[in-house]
Design goal:
The chain is of the alpha+beta class. Helix content is 34%, strand content 16%. The chain has eight helices and twelve strands. A hairpin with a 5-residue loop joins β2 and β3. α2 packs antiparallel against α3. The chain starts with 6 loop residues before the first helix and ends with a helix.
């Protein structure tokens, strides 16, 4: 990339000075540009403040004295303090432009992942009907995200990669990066202990944020360390919960193995448990509660077998066919007094996964 040829001239920021770990090819360039601007600004700040403090002391006159005008003109000084900062502004602009242009054009052959943002979650589509709320990529492999929003403006931000791009409804936006640091993973024993703890404490599902080590560095339900992914555009009341995880695999084979793993129900899970896992991982919990509280959409508590009035008239009984239709074609029958804002999950869930979600809804019926 063009900016990398000039990086040694300006120096790269040491890891951890201002930002998280540098974990992409963009990170060093962004950090060194930030430091260039910071130190130039700091130098001017110190000089200007020092002069502001010195002048009132040096030229202070006693009270009652006669005011005099002794303004002097120095052409060289005035030209210098006007022209010299302009050269610095040009350097900062050019430096920033190199990084910006690098980020705009993904290289040919980059791996493409379709990203859907919605209130309040993310869906990453890996093709072949496999999707997840986690972003998984391969170290050293350029990755292009093709992003869209189903509702309002969101913004995808990965701090360790130094990349951010708005996700706008009604259009596609692109973001690309090349990860340089693999996430790593925890031992099988540590992962098993964490899952057992979640089960014994009725956590309901494995929550990576509960199992922080080394100052809060958690791991995903499959034992991978991760980099944080945030939405940085305020998108409603649960904007602060629109958080996901980026896992960087060492090889494509490792990523492929994970894709196979997430697309089938684990042997040690009941359909209801797997359905609850999908409820959490697919973003259902952002809009549908399980405790009776109505949020963006109807609560799932006692929803199965109940009857709902529909927008435009009529009513429907919540059975297997209605649940399936509502997931794959949510605009077909909208419950009265709710807005039709749910995204379609067509092509993102297998028949087995749909069956497990239905089983989970049935388990929420109170006798």
């Amino acid at each position: 990339m063009l900016g990398h040829y000039i990086s040694p001239l300006l120096g790269d920021a040491p890891d951890g000075l201002w930002f998280p770990e540098e974990a992409s090819t963009f990170a060093g360039e962004v950090d060194s540009t930030f430091n260039l601007i910071l130190y130039i600004s700091l130098a001017f700040f110190v000089v200007i403040v020092a002069v502001m403090v010195w002048f009132p002391i040096r030229y202070r006159q006693p009270k009652g004295g006669k005011a005099t005008s002794r303004a002097l003109h120095n052409t060289m000084l005035e030209v210098s303090w006007s022209v010299f900062p302009c050269f610095l502004l040009v350097i900062m602009f050019v430096r920033g432009s190199w990084g910006y242009l690098d980020m705009r054009e993904p290289p040919a052959g980059a791996t493409e992942i379709n990203v859907t943002a919605f209130r309040w979650g993310w869906n990453f589509d890996y093709g072949k009907g496999i999707s997840s709320n986690e972003l998984h990529v391969v170290k050293g492999q350029p990755t292009k995200l093709i992003m869209r929003s189903t509702d309002v403006i969101h913004s995808l931000f990965i701090p360790s990669f130094r990349v951010k791009r708005d996700v706008v409804p009604g259009r596609y936006n692109l973001l690309w990066f090349e990860a340089t640091v693999a996430s790593g993973s925890v031992s099988d024993a540590e992962l098993a202990a964490a899952k057992l703890d979640a089960k014994e404490n009725n956590a309901g599902y494995f929550n990576p944020e509960r199992y922080g080590v080394d100052g809060g560095n958690g791991f995903t339900e499959h034992g991978y360390r991760y980099f944080d992914l945030f939405c940085t555009e305020y998108c409603g009341k649960d904007h602060s919960n629109m958080h996901s995880y980026v896992v960087v695999h060492e090889t494509q084979e490792e990523l492929d193995a994970w894709l196979v793993k997430i697309n089938v129900k684990p042997a040690d899970m009941t359909p209801e448990e797997y359905g609850q896992k999908l409820y959490n991982s697919k973003g259902c919990k952002s809009c549908h509660s399980v405790d009776g509280k109505a949020v963006v959409g109807p609560t799932f508590l006692n929803v199965y077998g109940s009857t709902h009035g529909l927008e435009g008239g009529g009513e429907v009984t919540v059975d297997e066919n209605y649940v399936r239709e509502s997931i794959l074609n949510p605009m077909a029958k909208i419950v009265a007094n709710y807005k039709g804002v749910m995204p379609s999950y067509k092509g993102q869930l297998t028949d087995e996964q749909l069956d497990c979600i239905i089983a989970f809804l049935k388990s929420l019926r109170q006798q």
